[in-house]
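re: the backbone from monday

yeah here it is again, tokenized this time
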């Protein structure tokens, strides 16, 4: 995992590259192997993923989190620990706002802090009278039942410094595995996305080419462009005599040029034009009998 924290990702950043059920299975395996709680929090310290069938918090923490102030302080502790871990690129062991020992392993995506795997909710020493007083001081203002909190604290697991460090190191290995898997998945998705984009461009280019070929085929068969034919029809319908003559002359010029020396083909194209012009004239209001009389004079 690379050191440094160049920016932060949203809560969905991690979920976008690693499937949630995979993360849940990893956390569950870690918890079974160590007997410790582990969960994933986002950059703001909000719980993001926890193993199925496992409580994310011990009784002590659940009591602390019954108040909005307690939840806020828990999030802030996790957020700060994850940021510190991301700065140094190694697990960060700390004491939370309520006095418990927790450690965090950073999750970085493209050198951006996405969150952390947190573990702990334990003690590193046997509690004494001074510790109970310390807990009461640290949780003052949270409106808690201090006696109940102390009872829960008596049930917390006590780990040696060596075991805490070993668990933190293992957590860091797990975090690296998660990120390595996620980066590979992200690279694969990016490659697929690029291939799809290239395929889309190729399809679009092929459509443009096919349209161009159709226009060429139409021009080859008629000897003049379809656009000019449509322009001629439009002008005849509107009674634009001068405009119609101008377009007709352009079409006849193209036909003579395209079928130069082929009298039969020229006649066929002119007959087609005659039919097209006659239909347009009728649609424009001309008398059918008059058109038939004129056509008979020139056909």
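seq for it, each position gets an aa:
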């Amino acid at each position: 995992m690379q050191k440094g924290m160049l920016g932060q990702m949203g809560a969905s950043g991690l979920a976008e590259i690693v499937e949630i059920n995979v993360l849940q299975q990893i956390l569950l395996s870690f918890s079974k192997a160590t007997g410790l709680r582990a969960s994933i929090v986002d950059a703001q310290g909000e719980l993001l993923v926890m193993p199925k069938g496992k409580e994310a918090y011990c009784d002590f923490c659940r009591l602390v989190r019954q108040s909005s102030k307690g939840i806020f302080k828990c999030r802030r502790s996790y957020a700060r620990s994850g940021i510190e871990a991301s700065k140094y690129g190694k697990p960060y062991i700390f004491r939370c706002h309520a006095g418990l020992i927790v450690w965090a392993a950073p999750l970085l995506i493209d050198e951006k802090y996405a969150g952390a795997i947190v573990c702990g909710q334990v003690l590193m020493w046997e509690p004494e009278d001074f510790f109970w007083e310390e807990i009461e001081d640290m949780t003052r203002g949270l409106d808690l039942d201090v006696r109940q909190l102390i009872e829960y604290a008596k049930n917390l697991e006590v780990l040696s410094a060596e075991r805490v460090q070993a668990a933190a190191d293992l957590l860091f290995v797990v975090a690296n595995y998660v990120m390595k898997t996620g980066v590979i998945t992200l690279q694969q998705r990016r490659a697929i996305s690029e291939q799809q984009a290239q395929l889309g461009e190729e399809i679009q280019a092929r459509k443009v080419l096919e349209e161009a070929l159709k226009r060429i085929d139409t021009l080859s068969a008629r000897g003049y462009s379809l656009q000019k034919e449509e322009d001629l029809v439009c002008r005849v319908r509107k009674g634009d005599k001068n405009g119609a003559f101008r377009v007709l002359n352009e079409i006849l010029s193209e036909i003579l040029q395209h079928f130069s020396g082929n009298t039969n083909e020229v006649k066929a194209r002119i007959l087609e034009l005659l039919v097209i012009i006659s239909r347009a004239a009728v649609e424009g209001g001309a008398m059918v009998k008059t058109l038939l009389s004129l056509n008979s004079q020139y056909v």
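The chain has eleven helices and five strands. Confidence is low (pLDDT under 50) at residues 1-11.
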